[in-house]
Amino acid sequence: MDFSVTCLHASEKLLNEELSKLLKLTKVSSTSCLTDSVLDKGLKKIDLIMVVKSLVNVCEKNIELCKSAAEKIDELKDNTMNCQKKLLDAHKDQINSVEKTVKTELKSWCDVVKKNCNINQTNQVNATKKSVKEVMKKVNEEDRKANNVMIYGVEEGAENSKGIDHLNFTDQILKEIDLLGIDYVDSYRIGKKEPGKTRPIRWELKYRCDVQCVLFNARKLKNTEKFSKVYLAPDRTKEQRIAHSKLVKQMKDKIATDSTKHFYIRNKVICSTDKNKN
Predict the structure, then answer these.
(1) Strand 269-274 and strand 261-266: pairing?
(2) Is the distance from CB of 180 to CB of 228 less than 8 angstroms?
(3) Computed from CA positions of residues 28, 34, 37, 42, in that sequence, does the dihedral angle turn out positive or negative?
(4) How far apart are CA 39 and CA 27, in angstroms?
(5) In this structure, are strands 184-189 and 148-152 parallel, antiparallel, or unpaired?
(6) How far apart are CA 81 and CA 83, in angstroms?
(7) Which of 7, 105, 125, 151 is most exposed by smallest CB count within 10 Å?
(8) Burial of 78 (0-12, 13-18, 19+ CB in 10 A)
(9) pTM of the entire structure?
């Protein structure tokens, strides 16, 4: 028996019905009045057997329900721990990426200053300022996009059919991937509207840590009727999109040459597993 609130209420109702039958047979008003003498005088042997069998049946069902509830709790704990681990790994990768970018740009800046300080100090200072500004702009853009999720494959106007706005549309997605507790700020189409072109939807989440949870659970959309052609992705910068496109092309080449493996991209690296692996 799979645990659910409905099953729990049904079990409670069944138990109350059996107790009501017992109270009716013994002609008392509450279970506190069910003393030994009342049960001895008020119940015939055949009635007692019937009551005991019914209560044993209810108890057995409740035991199965409790086992199912315990399994559900263990499953939720495992899923929560796995999600938290993935979030920590994602944060670590993001911090390392920003740190590496800043270090690289600062090193280049220092090298340029040392090489050209005696040539044209004024121009060099301006170039340095520009380089620092570009680095900060890049870091700020990555930071700003880190809270976003891009939604692809939603036909133009589909999110507004029957009066459904963008926010209610994203609520439906959260429901399908079992993350209704996620808070978000806004969602909207991006890009210029053109005939025959489907623009993506930018979805701004309130908390950065929720982005990985949403992307991790997005695979569940494939099993739904309404969102089977919808897929979610990070909100990447132009440089990140170019790098990701190169990875995708390399992965497609690998897929074309090796049909025994399942290839996928994780943490900016092409990974693979054997298709026939148990």
Answers:
(1) antiparallel
(2) no
(3) positive
(4) 10
(5) unpaired
(6) 5
(7) 125
(8) exposed
(9) 0.47
